[in-house]
Design goal:
Elements: E1 2-5, H1 8-21, E2 26-32, H2 38-48, E3 63-68, E4 76-82, H3 91-94, H4 97-100, E5 106-110, E6 124-131, E7 134-141, H5 144-154
Parallel strand pairs: 2-5, 2-6, 4-5
Antiparallel strand pairs: 1-7, 3-4, 6-7
Organism: Thiorhodococcus minor
Pfam families: TsaE
GO molecular function: ATP binding; metal ion binding; transferase activity
Length: about 160
């Protein structure tokens, strides 16, 4: 799926629609240059799941957990990871990542290449690129779970 977005607000709206299309367990890798809008997309997902507080990139904490109760009623956990400052993928073990993998949760991972070998495999890969007037997103489903999410996203009225 290829998506053209002209403003950060459009990127947040797309993130909200994506959040409504995915179901736990789901791992989403966000790939793009610094400032491409990975955190903006994550913020949109969190807003789509009902989060009203601040959403910052977990650049220094590496993992930011969110417990959400979206309109569908059931509790959803979303883990937002930003691995930009990760020195060695093995550091993820010290953060309790393996324990978190046992949960049915949504994972949104920025800079996933820095955690290679220690992260769960992605269901969706979203590549964000600069383009004149906005951003170009390429969304690729890598599993059956990801393909189902893309089908729901494609049928979304947003």
């Amino acid at each position: 799926m290829e998506v053209q977005l002209d403003r950060p607000e459009a990127q947040e709206r797309f993130g909200a629609a994506l959040a409504r299309a995915v179901q736990p367990p789901c791992v989403i890798y966000l790939v793009g240059d610094l400032g491409a809008g990975k955190t903006t997309l994550a913020r949109g997902m969190l807003r789509g799941l009902g989060h009203v507080g601040a959403v910052r990139s977990p650049t220094y904490t590496l993992i930011e957990p969110y417990a959400l109760s979206p309109s569908m009623g059931s509790q959803v956990s979303l883990y937002h990871l930003d691995l930009y400052r990760l020195g060695d993928p093995e550091e993820l073990d010290y953060l309790g990542l393996r324990d978190l993998m046992r949960q049915d949760a949504l994972w949104v991972v920025e800079w996933p290449e820095r955690g290679e070998g220690f992260l769960p495999q992605p269901d969706l890969l979203i590549e964000i690129k600069y383009q004149a007037g906005g951003r170009a997103l390429s969304v690729t489903a890598l599993t059956a779970w990801g393909r189902a999410a893309l089908a729901r996203l494609g049928n979304s009225p947003d």
